[in-house]
Amino acid sequence: xxxxxxPPNYLDLNRAMWDERVPIHIRSALYDVEGFKxxxxxxxxxxxEEMGPVENRELVHLQCHLGIDTLGWARRGARVTGLDFSxxxxxxxxxxxxxxxxxxRFVRGDVLAAPDLLNARYDIVYTGLGALxxxxxxxxxxxxxxxxxxxxxxxxxxEFHPLTGVFADADLSxxxxxxxxARSYTEPGSYADPGAATEHNVSxxxxxxxxxxxxxxxxxxxxxxxxxxxxxMLFPRWPSLERTGVDTFxxxxxxxxxxxxxxxxARKPA
Length: 270
What we know:
The chain has about 270 residues and is of the alpha/beta class. The protein is built from eight helices and eleven strands. It has helices at about 10-25, 35, 45-50, 70-75, 85-100, 115-120, 140-150, 210-220; strands at about 60, 80-85, 105-110, 120-130, 150-160, 180-185, 200-205, 225-230, 240-245, 250, 260-265. The strands form three sheets. The chain has a seven-stranded mixed sheet with strand order 3-2-1-4-5-11-8, sandwiched between helices.
């Protein structure tokens, strides 16, 4: 059976879904906005280590949602810009920056229009953690990244490994293709609050195999400096995962180890 074809208004459907979930996420324990205001660091330790120092560097966070991670990098000294296609998300991010006294710029717009919307160049493009699956084609995305970077600047991507996209959420049964395909979901509530009442529940996502991710980045003229695969997730996606740290969940001892996340750095030649 062929995978479903997305309708022409798929972007509007996705935006309506995200717009409606912004207030839900602001109130949720998962995003812990009040904790961030009180000083909680939202960034994952492996990202901080892999990214390296960001002081006085221009950083743009693509598909930034509420901007919490964006502002986390600002607290570490970066000069930050966040971009997201959701108006309510950008409003929330701008409000959070004002409430915490953090200097940041937030812009609403489609990620593929980022170079024209932002009219700036950056030392770091930061993105991931569920960002790529919203893009039908990674080639134009990678070209945008290359246009946004200063010569010598770097892309840092941390993302859920595409292998995880083949498994059912209830268990590890194989239910989806590893290779590129469109997928439609109708899911009320949110991953941050499954019981929340929602009306805009249809979304479209895309599975991207690892080869497509890497070829898009290389095809845009970037140089891959570093790539890693990780055996942990940031949330208990499957019942068999066990907490092994503040934000890390792994399969128990004796279970075959699988790549659950990936991270990479790619550089625009000077």
